[in-house]
Protein backbone atom coordinates (compact mmCIF):
# COMPACT_ATOMS: atom_id res chain seq x y z
CA UNK A 1 0.00 0.00 0.00
CA UNK A 2 1.36 3.42 -1.00
CA UNK A 3 0.47 5.98 1.67
CA UNK A 4 0.12 9.43 0.11
CA UNK A 5 0.08 12.96 1.47
CA UNK A 6 -1.11 15.92 -0.60
CA UNK A 7 0.21 19.46 -0.20
CA UNK A 8 -2.25 21.96 -1.63
CA UNK A 9 -5.99 21.63 -1.05
CA UNK A 10 -7.23 23.68 -3.98
CA UNK A 11 -8.79 22.45 -7.21
CA UNK A 12 -5.90 20.13 -8.03
CA UNK A 13 -5.34 18.84 -4.51
CA UNK A 14 -9.00 17.93 -4.26
CA UNK A 15 -8.84 16.25 -7.66
CA UNK A 16 -5.88 14.11 -6.59
CA UNK A 17 -7.62 13.05 -3.39
CA UNK A 18 -10.71 12.06 -5.37
CA UNK A 19 -8.62 10.32 -8.06
CA UNK A 20 -6.93 8.05 -5.52
CA UNK A 21 -9.91 7.45 -3.23
CA UNK A 22 -10.45 3.70 -3.28
CA UNK A 23 -7.80 3.14 -5.94
CA UNK A 24 -6.10 -0.25 -5.46
CA UNK A 25 -2.68 -0.08 -3.86
CA UNK A 26 -2.94 3.55 -2.73
CA UNK A 27 -4.29 5.37 0.29
CA UNK A 28 -4.33 9.13 0.73
CA UNK A 29 -3.85 9.71 4.44
CA UNK A 30 -3.13 13.43 4.85
CA UNK A 31 -3.64 16.81 3.23
CA UNK A 32 -1.93 20.12 3.93
CA UNK A 33 -2.78 23.69 2.98
CA UNK A 34 -1.82 27.08 4.40
CA UNK A 35 -5.55 27.82 4.53
CA UNK A 36 -6.90 25.73 7.43
CA UNK A 37 -10.44 25.80 6.07
CA UNK A 38 -9.32 24.46 2.70
CA UNK A 39 -7.31 21.70 4.36
CA UNK A 40 -10.17 20.77 6.67
CA UNK A 41 -12.71 20.70 3.82
CA UNK A 42 -10.71 18.15 1.81
CA UNK A 43 -9.78 16.21 4.95
CA UNK A 44 -13.40 15.90 6.05
CA UNK A 45 -14.60 14.83 2.61
CA UNK A 46 -12.03 12.05 2.23
CA UNK A 47 -11.31 11.12 5.85
CA UNK A 48 -7.77 12.50 5.99
CA UNK A 49 -5.57 14.11 8.61
CA UNK A 50 -5.39 17.89 8.04
CA UNK A 51 -2.30 20.06 8.37
CA UNK A 52 -1.38 23.69 7.73
CA UNK A 53 2.40 23.11 7.74
CA UNK A 54 3.85 20.53 5.37
CA UNK A 55 6.75 19.92 7.74
CA UNK A 56 4.35 18.79 10.44
CA UNK A 57 2.70 16.45 7.95
CA UNK A 58 6.08 14.98 7.02
CA UNK A 59 7.19 14.67 10.64
CA UNK A 60 4.08 12.62 11.38
CA UNK A 61 5.73 9.93 9.28
CA UNK A 62 4.29 7.04 7.36
CA UNK A 63 4.19 8.73 3.95
CA UNK A 64 5.51 6.82 0.98
CA UNK A 65 4.72 9.61 -1.50
CA UNK A 66 3.79 13.27 -1.54
CA UNK A 67 1.80 15.03 -4.24
CA UNK A 68 2.80 18.70 -4.51
CA UNK A 69 -0.26 20.59 -5.75
CA UNK A 70 0.86 24.08 -4.77
CA UNK A 71 1.02 27.11 -7.11
CA UNK A 72 3.67 27.20 -9.86
CA UNK A 73 6.06 29.34 -7.79
CA UNK A 74 5.73 27.32 -4.56
CA UNK A 75 7.20 23.91 -5.35
CA UNK A 76 10.79 24.06 -4.12
CA UNK A 77 10.49 24.07 -0.33
CA UNK A 78 7.79 21.40 -0.17
CA UNK A 79 9.48 19.17 -2.75
CA UNK A 80 12.92 19.38 -1.12
CA UNK A 81 11.54 18.71 2.37
CA UNK A 82 9.40 15.81 1.14
CA UNK A 83 12.30 14.21 -0.72
CA UNK A 84 14.56 14.52 2.32
CA UNK A 85 11.88 12.79 4.39
CA UNK A 86 12.15 9.80 2.04
CA UNK A 87 8.91 10.34 0.14
CA UNK A 88 8.56 9.90 -3.61
CA UNK A 89 7.16 12.94 -5.41
CA UNK A 90 4.48 13.83 -7.90
CA UNK A 91 4.90 17.53 -8.66
CA UNK A 92 2.50 19.68 -10.58
CA UNK A 93 4.04 21.11 -13.71
CA UNK A 94 6.19 23.11 -14.12
CA UNK A 95 8.87 21.43 -12.03
CA UNK A 96 9.86 24.94 -10.95
CA UNK A 97 9.97 28.48 -12.31
CA UNK A 98 13.72 29.03 -11.98
CA UNK A 99 16.77 27.01 -12.93
CA UNK A 100 18.00 27.33 -9.34
CA UNK A 101 14.81 25.77 -7.96
CA UNK A 102 15.01 22.95 -10.51
CA UNK A 103 18.57 22.20 -9.38
CA UNK A 104 17.61 22.26 -5.70
CA UNK A 105 14.70 19.86 -6.21
CA UNK A 106 16.75 17.57 -8.44
CA UNK A 107 19.64 17.44 -5.97
CA UNK A 108 17.32 16.66 -3.05
CA UNK A 109 15.58 13.88 -4.97
CA UNK A 110 18.80 12.26 -6.13
CA UNK A 111 20.51 12.53 -2.76
CA UNK A 112 17.49 10.96 -1.05
CA UNK A 113 17.26 8.16 -3.59
CA UNK A 114 13.56 8.74 -4.20
CA UNK A 115 11.62 9.09 -7.43
CA UNK A 116 9.96 12.16 -8.90
CA UNK A 117 7.23 12.47 -11.53
CA UNK A 118 6.44 15.87 -13.04
CA UNK A 119 2.75 16.30 -13.79
CA UNK A 120 2.67 16.60 -17.56
CA UNK A 121 -0.80 15.13 -17.67
CA UNK A 122 -1.25 15.30 -21.44
CA UNK A 123 0.94 12.21 -21.71
CA UNK A 124 -2.22 10.48 -20.46
CA UNK A 125 -4.46 12.34 -22.90
CA UNK A 126 -5.54 9.65 -25.41
CA UNK A 127 -5.20 11.97 -28.43
CA UNK A 128 -1.73 13.24 -27.50
CA UNK A 129 -0.59 9.73 -26.65
CA UNK A 130 -1.83 8.52 -30.04
CA UNK A 131 0.19 11.24 -31.81
CA UNK A 132 3.26 10.24 -29.79
CA UNK A 133 2.80 6.56 -30.58
CA UNK A 134 2.41 7.29 -34.31
CA UNK A 135 5.59 9.34 -34.21
CA UNK A 136 7.52 6.73 -32.22
CA UNK A 137 6.41 4.00 -34.65
CA UNK A 138 7.70 6.04 -37.60
CA UNK A 139 4.25 6.46 -39.17
CA UNK A 140 4.64 10.24 -39.29
CA UNK A 141 8.13 10.03 -40.71
CA UNK A 142 10.32 12.96 -39.76
CA UNK A 143 8.27 15.39 -37.67
CA UNK A 144 8.60 18.60 -39.71
CA UNK A 145 6.44 20.95 -37.68
CA UNK A 146 3.92 21.04 -34.87
CA UNK A 147 1.28 23.72 -34.32
CA UNK A 148 -0.24 23.68 -30.85
CA UNK A 149 -2.85 26.06 -29.46
CA UNK A 150 -3.76 25.86 -25.76
CA UNK A 151 -5.67 28.79 -24.30
CA UNK A 152 -8.12 29.72 -21.54
CA UNK A 153 -10.90 32.21 -21.10
CA UNK A 154 -10.59 35.19 -18.76
CA UNK A 155 -12.13 33.04 -16.03
CA UNK A 156 -8.86 31.22 -15.34
CA UNK A 157 -6.56 34.19 -14.57
CA UNK A 158 -9.22 36.43 -13.04
CA UNK A 159 -11.23 34.01 -10.89
CA UNK A 160 -9.96 30.43 -10.91
CA UNK A 161 -6.36 30.94 -9.77
CA UNK A 162 -5.73 33.82 -7.33
CA UNK A 163 -1.97 33.75 -8.06
CA UNK A 164 -2.24 34.32 -11.83
CA UNK A 165 -0.17 37.52 -11.65
CA UNK A 166 2.75 35.39 -10.45
CA UNK A 167 2.35 33.05 -13.43
CA UNK A 168 1.51 33.51 -17.11
CA UNK A 169 0.12 31.62 -20.11
CA UNK A 170 3.72 30.53 -20.70
CA UNK A 171 4.01 28.80 -17.33
CA UNK A 172 0.42 27.69 -16.79
CA UNK A 173 -0.37 26.50 -20.31
CA UNK A 174 2.75 26.42 -22.46
CA UNK A 175 4.60 24.10 -20.08
CA UNK A 176 2.03 21.50 -21.19
CA UNK A 177 2.57 22.12 -24.89
CA UNK A 178 6.35 22.40 -24.64
CA UNK A 179 6.41 18.98 -23.02
CA UNK A 180 4.10 17.53 -25.68
CA UNK A 181 6.15 19.01 -28.52
CA UNK A 182 9.40 17.64 -27.09
CA UNK A 183 7.85 14.23 -26.37
CA UNK A 184 6.51 13.86 -29.90
CA UNK A 185 9.52 15.33 -31.73
CA UNK A 186 12.03 13.40 -29.58
CA UNK A 187 14.86 15.79 -30.40
CA UNK A 188 16.45 18.75 -28.62
CA UNK A 189 15.35 22.37 -28.94
CA UNK A 190 18.27 24.57 -30.00
CA UNK A 191 16.62 27.99 -30.05
CA UNK A 192 13.45 29.85 -29.06
CA UNK A 193 11.86 32.99 -30.42
CA UNK A 194 8.78 34.43 -28.75
CA UNK A 195 6.39 37.32 -29.16
CA UNK A 196 3.36 38.36 -27.19
CA UNK A 197 1.23 41.11 -25.76
CA UNK A 198 0.09 42.29 -22.36
CA UNK A 199 -2.14 45.02 -20.99
CA UNK A 200 -5.70 43.73 -21.03
CA UNK A 201 -5.28 41.49 -17.99
CA UNK A 202 -3.34 44.25 -16.24
CA UNK A 203 -6.39 46.48 -16.68
CA UNK A 204 -8.33 43.83 -14.75
CA UNK A 205 -5.78 43.72 -11.93
CA UNK A 206 -3.72 40.73 -13.15
CA UNK A 207 -0.38 42.05 -14.38
CA UNK A 208 0.86 39.28 -16.66
CA UNK A 209 0.99 38.33 -20.32
CA UNK A 210 -2.28 38.17 -22.24
CA UNK A 211 -0.93 36.26 -25.25
CA UNK A 212 2.31 34.33 -25.84
CA UNK A 213 3.53 32.89 -29.16
CA UNK A 214 6.68 30.76 -29.24
CA UNK A 215 8.65 29.27 -32.12
CA UNK A 216 10.83 26.34 -31.07
CA UNK A 217 13.57 25.27 -33.46
CA UNK A 218 15.01 21.79 -33.12
CA UNK A 219 18.53 20.65 -33.86
CA UNK A 220 17.59 19.40 -37.33
CA UNK A 221 15.98 22.72 -38.29
CA UNK A 222 12.37 21.57 -37.84
CA UNK A 223 10.00 23.62 -35.73
CA UNK A 224 7.07 23.76 -33.34
CA UNK A 225 4.74 26.76 -33.13
CA UNK A 226 3.04 27.23 -29.76
CA UNK A 227 0.33 29.74 -28.82
CA UNK A 228 -1.27 30.26 -25.42
CA UNK A 229 -3.61 33.02 -24.29
CA UNK A 230 -5.56 33.92 -21.17
CA UNK A 231 -7.98 36.32 -22.87
CA UNK A 232 -10.62 34.22 -24.59
CA UNK A 233 -14.15 35.58 -23.98
CA UNK A 234 -16.01 33.99 -21.08
CA UNK A 235 -18.89 33.41 -23.49
CA UNK A 236 -16.75 30.75 -25.18
CA UNK A 237 -18.39 27.31 -25.02
CA UNK A 238 -15.45 25.96 -22.98
CA UNK A 239 -12.86 27.58 -20.72
CA UNK A 240 -10.20 25.65 -22.69
CA UNK A 241 -9.28 25.81 -26.38
CA UNK A 242 -6.86 23.02 -27.31
CA UNK A 243 -5.87 22.17 -30.88
CA UNK A 244 -2.92 20.15 -32.09
CA UNK A 245 -1.55 19.69 -35.62
CA UNK A 246 1.52 17.71 -36.62
CA UNK A 247 3.00 17.50 -40.10
CA UNK A 248 5.48 14.73 -40.82
CA UNK A 249 7.33 13.66 -43.94
CA UNK A 250 5.03 10.64 -44.33
CA UNK A 251 1.71 11.75 -42.82
CA UNK A 252 -0.01 14.49 -40.81
CA UNK A 253 -2.33 14.52 -37.81
CA UNK A 254 -4.92 17.16 -36.91
CA UNK A 255 -6.66 16.86 -33.52
CA UNK A 256 -9.30 19.26 -32.18
CA UNK A 257 -9.36 18.74 -28.43
CA UNK A 258 -11.59 21.73 -27.77
CA UNK A 259 -15.05 20.15 -27.89
CA UNK A 260 -14.09 16.46 -28.20
CA UNK A 261 -17.12 16.02 -30.45
CA UNK A 262 -19.60 16.76 -27.65
CA UNK A 263 -21.75 19.90 -27.80
CA UNK A 264 -24.64 20.83 -25.53
CA UNK A 265 -27.33 23.50 -26.10
CA UNK A 266 -29.82 24.69 -23.52
CA UNK A 267 -29.68 27.81 -21.41
CA UNK A 268 -26.30 28.32 -23.08
CA UNK A 269 -24.19 26.59 -25.72
CA UNK A 270 -21.34 24.66 -24.13
CA UNK A 271 -18.66 22.11 -24.89
CA UNK A 272 -18.44 20.22 -21.59
CA UNK A 273 -15.91 17.73 -22.94
CA UNK A 274 -15.55 14.01 -22.39
CA UNK A 275 -12.15 13.79 -20.66
CA UNK A 276 -13.39 14.18 -17.12
CA UNK A 277 -16.33 13.47 -14.91
CA UNK A 278 -17.15 10.19 -13.25
CA UNK A 279 -17.93 6.68 -14.42
CA UNK A 280 -19.40 4.35 -11.78
CA UNK A 281 -18.57 6.95 -9.15
CA UNK A 282 -14.88 7.13 -10.08
CA UNK A 283 -13.21 10.22 -11.50
CA UNK A 284 -11.80 9.89 -15.02
CA UNK A 285 -9.46 11.90 -17.23
CA UNK A 286 -5.76 12.53 -17.87
CA UNK A 287 -4.76 13.98 -14.47
CA UNK A 288 -6.56 11.15 -12.69
CA UNK A 289 -4.91 8.51 -14.85
CA UNK A 290 -1.55 10.20 -14.30
CA UNK A 291 -1.91 10.09 -10.50
CA UNK A 292 -3.02 6.48 -10.65
CA UNK A 293 -0.08 5.60 -12.89
CA UNK A 294 2.26 7.23 -10.36
CA UNK A 295 1.06 5.19 -7.38
CA UNK A 296 0.77 1.99 -9.42
CA UNK A 297 4.38 2.30 -10.55
CA UNK A 298 5.52 2.84 -6.96
CA UNK A 299 3.47 -0.10 -5.69
CA UNK A 300 4.91 -2.37 -8.39
CA UNK A 301 8.49 -1.16 -8.05
CA UNK A 302 8.59 0.40 -11.50
CA UNK A 303 10.21 3.75 -12.39
CA UNK A 304 7.92 6.77 -12.67
CA UNK A 305 8.02 9.41 -15.36
CA UNK A 306 8.24 11.93 -16.90
CA UNK A 307 10.90 12.82 -14.39
CA UNK A 308 13.40 15.44 -13.36
CA UNK A 309 15.30 15.67 -16.64
CA UNK A 310 12.15 16.35 -18.66
CA UNK A 311 10.84 18.75 -16.02
CA UNK A 312 14.09 20.70 -16.07
CA UNK A 313 14.15 20.76 -19.87
CA UNK A 314 10.63 22.17 -20.06
CA UNK A 315 11.48 24.84 -17.49
CA UNK A 316 14.58 25.77 -19.51
CA UNK A 317 12.47 26.20 -22.66
CA UNK A 318 9.80 28.29 -20.91
CA UNK A 319 12.50 30.47 -19.36
CA UNK A 320 13.89 30.96 -22.88
CA UNK A 321 10.40 31.94 -24.07
CA UNK A 322 10.19 34.59 -21.34
CA UNK A 323 13.72 35.82 -22.09
CA UNK A 324 12.83 36.17 -25.76
CA UNK A 325 9.68 38.10 -24.82
CA UNK A 326 11.85 40.42 -22.73
CA UNK A 327 14.61 40.99 -25.28
CA UNK A 328 12.78 40.54 -28.58
CA UNK A 329 15.53 38.25 -29.83
CA UNK A 330 16.24 34.60 -30.48
CA UNK A 331 17.44 32.72 -27.38
CA UNK A 332 19.80 29.78 -28.02
CA UNK A 333 19.56 26.68 -25.87
CA UNK A 334 22.42 24.36 -25.05
CA UNK A 335 21.93 20.67 -25.76
CA UNK A 336 20.88 18.77 -22.61
CA UNK A 337 23.74 16.99 -20.89
CA UNK A 338 23.76 13.22 -20.70
CA UNK A 339 21.95 11.84 -17.67
TrEMBL record:
InterPro entries: Gfo/Idh/MocA-like_OxRdtase_N, Gfo/Idh/MocA_oxidrdct_glycsds, GFO_IDH_MocA-like_dom, NAD(P)-bd_dom_sf
Keyword Repeat listed: no
Keywords, comma-separated and alphabetical: Oxidoreductase
Database matches in Pfam families: GFO_IDH_MocA, GFO_IDH_MocA_C3
Residues annotated as domain Gfo/Idh/MocA-like oxidoreductase N-terminal: 2-120
Recorded GO MF terms: nucleotide binding; oxidoreductase activity
Protein name stated in the entry: Putative oxidoreductase
Lineage of origin: Bacteria, Bacillati, Actinomycetota, Actinomycetes, Kitasatosporales
Amino acid sequence: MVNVGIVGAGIRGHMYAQSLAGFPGAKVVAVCDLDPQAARKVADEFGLAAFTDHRAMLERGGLDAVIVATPDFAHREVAVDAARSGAHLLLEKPLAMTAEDCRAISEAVREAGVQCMVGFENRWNPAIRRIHDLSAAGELGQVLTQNILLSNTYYVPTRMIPWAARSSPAWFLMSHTVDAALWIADKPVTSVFASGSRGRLAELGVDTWDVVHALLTFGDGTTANLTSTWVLPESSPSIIDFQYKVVGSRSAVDVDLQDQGFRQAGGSYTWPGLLGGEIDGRLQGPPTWMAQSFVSALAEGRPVGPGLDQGTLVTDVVLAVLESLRTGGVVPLAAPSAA
